Amino acid sequence: MKRVLPSALVPALALALALSLAGCGLDPAEQMERARASYAAHDFTRARLDLVSLLQEEPQNEAARKLLVRTLLAMGDGEGARQALERIAPGQRSADHAVLLGEAALLRERPDEALGLVDGARGSGAQWVRGMAHLLEGDPAKARSAFARGLEEGPEDARLLADFARLELKEGHVPEARGLVDRALKVDPASREALLADGQVATAQGDLLRALEAYSAALEAYPGNLAALTGKAAILGDLGRTEDMQAVLDAVPEGTGASPELVYLRARLAGAQGDWAKVRGILQSRSEVVRTRDEAAILYARALVELDQDEQARAALQPVLTRTPSNVAARRELARIQIAQKDFAGALATLEPLVAKSTASASDRRLYAEAAKGAGRGDAAQAAQRARAPSPQALAAQLAEADTAMKAGNWANASALYKSLLAVTDGTNPLFLNNLALAESRLGRRQEGVAFALRALESAPENASVMDTAGWLLVETESDHARGLRLLEAAAKKAPDNATIAGHLASARKGT
């Protein structure tokens, strides 16, 4: 008869086996050296195995125990780190012992304990613990003060700089966040927290290609890091690279807890693949994600609509608008459902805040016109006319927003805005097309950028800037180097003092 081990014993036995093999054939000094190398390579799982095995043989090896503490903290194991720290003899404790205990308390979500542990301690590390503890307590003002004091005491603390950047980002101070991240990367280009913060700030800035590079760098330096994996997957989704997004999510290590972000991303991927039943199944199995994340609730509602469950979709959206009445995406989705259910009065009320301004988008005006017609409103025809011809104020506001996004390098917003402008005009404006080509290329969608650049060239064949964009993208993408070079030469003749065109031409000539 085949014996089956109780499932609860399997992980314990696997760990015991791994520990028994970890030091096989190595003396303690060699094992310690290997642990140090694993730690330096950010292979924390391997380092932990060697260190635990070594300490079983040499329980008084304080160097191994200290490295184990830092390994466990890097792995997010606050309880294990606390136990290891308490076993270090008082005379052997490092100068930052209290800070390490505070970090372990933070990982166990005990901010009061963390604050008590660093009471009276000085230095950027202690201030970082205080700042993070205050954030856990929901007091960003105190966190800001602690972080600021920390930078006075230790201006080259990459982790503190990165977490201060996240606080600035959360409070909407994007330029300040970017400055702090850049400082953190200058201090330590390989800092995990700095790379992750760089990805977050770049995403907020709409520079998705930089965000992708930051998360990729974090994954290369810290293989399997969940924050980097989910960050990269989200950016790939934003870029429409569904297959790459799938590959990243498939690389999430087995046994990793299904964080809300991971649940949402898997549902989002299923939606991009058109598998709405899978979206519903994923989000129904984790209903707390739908209750607490607006974007998950909107995606869930969309899946329910696709599966002809409009009433349930409407119920899923209502809490979102109760929490955040200004959520435009939720209002649009709810209005579509209300129109489908012939609740035209409800749809009009839902859309009213969106169309009340002269700068309202054409898509919102079209939805409003549809609801007005269904409700039999006397001004339905007028509403339809306004939807067909956007107001000059709306176009001007959108153009100004697009121009600001271009100047700020917010390529994602710029792309969306110029696409919207093309949709409500005749689609031939060379400025819109040219800027959209640039934005798409900066987002890594270079072939799409070439297509828009060539459309701009059709509308303005003699414009030097348009010729430069088309020529450079043809060269850069290796679509048609000869034609690109001819365009750049013609652009340089028309604008001989333009440094950008001259640079592109010089680079193109080097490639011939």
Automatic annotation (TrEMBL):
UniProt KW keywords:
Repeat, Signal, TPR repeat
> Which spans of this chain does UniProt mark as TPR repeats?
192-225
PROSITE patterns on file: PROKAR_LIPOPROTEIN (PS51257), TPR (PS50005)
Q: Where is the signal peptide?
A: 1-22
The coiled-coil segments of this chain are none
Presence of keyword Repeat: yes
Name it. Answer: Tetratricopeptide repeat protein
Q: Which organism is it from?
A: Novosphingobium mangrovi (ex Hu et al. 2023)
